[in-house]
Amino acid sequence: MKSHSRILIAGGYGLIGSNIARHVRAINKEVEIIVAGRNPEKGAELAQELSNSRSVFLDINDVSPTLSDVGKIDLIVAALQDPADNLLHAAIAHNSAHIGITKLADDVGAITFAALQSPPKQPIVLLGHSDGGVNTIVSKKASQDFQSIHSIAIAALYDPLDPIGPMNASDFDNSGGLLDRVLLRSDGKWKWFESNKNLRKVTIGDDLLDGYPVPLLDIPSLAGITQASNVRWDYVQGESIGTKAVGISSHDVYIDIEGVLKSGEAVQRRVIISDPHGQAHLTGLGVLVSIERILGLDGQPAAKGGLYLPETLVSPHAAIQRFKDFGVTIEQVDSSR
Predict the structure, then answer these.
(1) CATH 3.40.630.10 applies to domain 132-278+323-336
(2) Is this structure's pTM higher than 0.90?
(3) By C-alpha distance, which of 105, 177, 151, 99 is closest to 258?
């Protein structure tokens, strides 16, 4: 572990940012956590709760004053929208690592080209995946039993009773926004689709729900991992496992993998991820395992500089165990095709 590591979480007192901060503190008491945003008074109570933490002002359009004031930062986590990549460029300039959780498939070209032309000296993690990369990591582990995969389809069920936060709520507004245009892997080709014209019927228990495709980074990640001909990620709304069972909303993800196992059997595998504490809690866990790996909080040497995806940074086995440590359940069922 880097001695006296310091993390700045931009948007750190928001719903997702505060979950990230609490998760870090739950596994490590020594890391200094700085929560930053336009209203630092909102983060003061969280900083006091966490100990060895503080809340500072940050204007995403002018980050230099804040970074100059706080001094050397080992890792910047952007848990908010940063359209101009100001935090990313500042991290590279200040020799800090960076995690960004909001970029979609068509947003990462500029970052990738910049990193290839001037390789970063610290880890830069593209984490615009669903739930902070949790679903891609679990899918990677579940796909390792297959010799060939025809399709991977992920459906993330959002329960209206789960307070997912304004940033995520705006992302999944069915009236338009991100859902107007999506990049999917279809029949072995990359194609752009109009979301509202390409719904998928998703069976969850006794319910048949509409799935709206969203161009998250899980799609190119899983295509690269598995070479599957068809890959998509869908937003589904309905009652969660928790709501149906005990009246408290959970966040549930359904991963369907269709292909041929190494044994030669053709199967459809469904993996169900359920976090009883909701979507923001699960997203925080996805970010946590990347933080652990970057700083070496997992007991291994800190990660070297470079451009990373969650599946190229962390061990699926270690990450899944961490998710389970925090109460997440992961179930797997195979059926013959």
Answers:
(1) no
(2) yes
(3) 151
